[in-house]
Amino acid sequence: MTFLQALLLALLQGVTELFPVSSLGHAVLAPAILHWQINEADPVFLPFLVALHLGTALALLLYFWRDWLGFAAAIAGHGETVAADRKLFLLLVVGSIPAAAVGTIFEHVLRAVFATPMIVAAFLVVNGVILFIAERLRRKRRPTRTIKTATLADALLIGFAQATALIPGISRSGVTIVGGLLRGLNHSDAARFSFLLATPIIAGAALLELPKLLHHDAVTMPLWLITAAALVAGGTAYLSTAFLMRYFKRHEADALNPYAAYCILAGITCLIALR
Question: Which of 45, 177, 210, 251 might form a disulfide with 255, Cβ 3.0–4.6 angstroms?
Fold first, then answer.
């Protein structure tokens, strides 16, 4: 992987991780479409992408630092909103369990799917269809809950939705926002819960995969390049988060439709190009 390729993948990761368009799907499809000589089945490729995700996780921690500081204070028994912060933290823990369990059990199967661009393109189309259907279902009812009134059942179901995003082409932020909408949250609250939920699952993946980058048999790119790419991903992810939080506050009606259309068109285009 060249310096330019690594930075372009980092930029793509930072832009697409929080948008409901599947960052992993784009990371698989972009090299295939551009005919880059990158072996996506190489043992270092997935850990490299996880390093980019670590940059994204740091960006999310920075953007939502007040929330995470509130969680820490609530666990220690301090702060003015201890009960509310403890409850939200518990919801995030519960919501993280399904993806962690599925990822551990089906790691090898997911790696096989990960290296198949045609399958990824097909799932990108599926992702777009999911977003469209969710918006149509949401129109039939008004939001009935907020993050403050969400339940453990809500968090668990959103967590199961997140587990499906372990398939490249299915957007983690997309399906978790969809899960929130179907549980009665509005777009803004669903997006906030989705972005908060991203941090533990990304950090967990990093703990599992990043040590492989330090193994002498696995490292095929310099550590400084991986670090630079992670910083680029983090910077663009921060800007993406700031944009999306404003976007979902201002576009309550059919907010996911533009991303649904993009996923369907991009997926179909890639299927045609990769034939």
Answer: 251
